[in-house]
Every structure is written in structure tokens, then in C-alpha cells.
Amino acid sequence: MADRPVTLLDKSEVLTGLFTVWDQLDELLGGLSEADWRAPSALAGWDVQAVVSHIIGTESFLQGISPPAPDIDVAALDHVRNDIGVMNECWVRHLSNQTGAAVLERFRKVTGTRRKVLEDMSLDEWNAVGVTPAGPDSYGRFMRIRVFDCWMHEQDIRVGLERPSTDEDLIGPAARLSLAEIATSMGFVVGKRAGTPDGSRVLIDLTGPLARQMRVAVNGRAQLVDDFGGQEPTTTIRVDALQFTRLAGGRPLCPRRSQDIAFEGDQDVADRIVKHLNFVI
């Protein structure tokens, strides 16, 4: 089997997106009351503080810091589904008794350290292949996944606080990079998860401030394409781009944005794709 192609990404662009979402989180969290920190997020079993604790834990892991020992069997919790979830919950439990201010200070410290490490990283290190949540790929790809993860968690916090992103909030590098990362999984979602039949041409038409189009052609295997060679799509799914990211992440839709999902063409295929959009572990 041929080796998988390595994803080579512009270091400056990805780091701008990552640092931007960290700055946005810092600004959002800086004015919270203790009650706000304990508000349920959009994720089952986690309040706002737990979401931030998870981000702290992942960035600590990337610094080589092992997760703290939990005080309970976290694998038995209903919302923990795999080994990554176990690691996440170790940090959530560890920081659960801290004040919001202390957790924010820890967030600032770990992201400050990570900024310096990433800024100093050579291009050879940035492009080197290693383990990522998406399989073997470049460290740069891993950091784009970090942009996606942190940006999604910003939205989780905003939904929990009932402070959803405005259209202006959404126009930025973190959102664009997050959609680019999601796009890489659309062939898998359309072809394997949804079982879209051979010969299908699926257009995912995203609306709103993050408007863009994703095209997936199924010819033996499903893959992203730039166009359909002059042919019309056999299935079109039209949805607000932020809501699309919520579906892809297995999250509830944002209540203050359009809930509409419009289908054209093969309705059965469109329905299966939407039902199987969640690919996040």
C-alpha cells in the first residue's frame, strides 16, 4: 500500500489561528464569575471549567506532562468513551476543585509556554511525521487539529454561557482552519460512514459568514474534489457553516443561529450523510 501523503501546512498561518483562538478564549474567560465557570457547557458531563481543564490537559500532554491520577474510576463515567476520554477526565477531575481564576491562570501559563515552543520550532520539526489524532502526519497537521479542537471548545463554552459567536466573531483564521480540517474527513463521512453509492456527487453548501462549498465525488472511493467536471451534484446539503461544525463534532446546534438544513436531489443520501456527520472521537 502506498504511503499516506504528508500534510504540509504553512507554520505562520496555523500558529496565527491557534494563538488567535487562545486569545479569544482568554478574553471570553477573563470576565466570568464563579457561577459562570460552573455553568453546564454544550458537552455532556462537563461544565465550562471542565472544558478549559481539558484544553490545559492536552497542552500539558504536548509538553510531556503526564496526566494526574484521578480520585475515581473515570472510565466508568457515562460520557467517557475511550482512552483519550480517560486522559481528559483525569485533568478535569484534578482541576475541578480549583477556582475559575486559578484555572484561567493555569490556562495562561500552559498556553504561554506552548507559544514559545511552537514559535521556536524549526520547519523540519514542523513538517516531521509523527503520531496525530488523525493518524501518522506532520506536526503541522497536528497543530491544525489543535486549532479545530480549541475553536470547537470555544463554541461549547459560548453555547453554555448563552454567548454564542456573532458573525463578526466567526470571521477569523481559527474558524477557517477548523473548517479546512473538517473538510479532510468528508470523503470518509460521505463514503464510509454514510455509505453513499458509487457515482454520487455530493455538494455541501455552507452558508453564513463562513460560507464555502465542499464537493465529494464517489468513484470507487469517496474523495474531495474541486469540481464535478461540469456535472450537477446528485445530492446537495445546505446548512449554516457554524451549525455544520456542530454536527461534525457531535454537538447540539447553536440555539441562536438558523436550524435549517435543506436537501436537494437524493434525499435519502442527504439524510444519511447528516446523520453520520459526527466523526470526532
Automatic annotation (TrEMBL):
Residues 177-272 form the MDMPI C-terminal domain. Residues 20-158 form the Mycothiol-dependent maleylpyruvate isomerase metal-binding domain. Signal peptide: none annotated. Gene3D superfamilies: dinb family like domain. SUPFAM superfamilies: DinB/YfiT-like putative metalloenzymes. Pfam families: MDMPI_C, MDMPI_N. GO terms for molecular function: metal ion binding. This is Mycothiol-dependent maleylpyruvate isomerase metal-binding domain-containing protein. The lineage of its organism: Bacteria, Bacillati, Actinomycetota, Actinomycetes, Mycobacteriales.
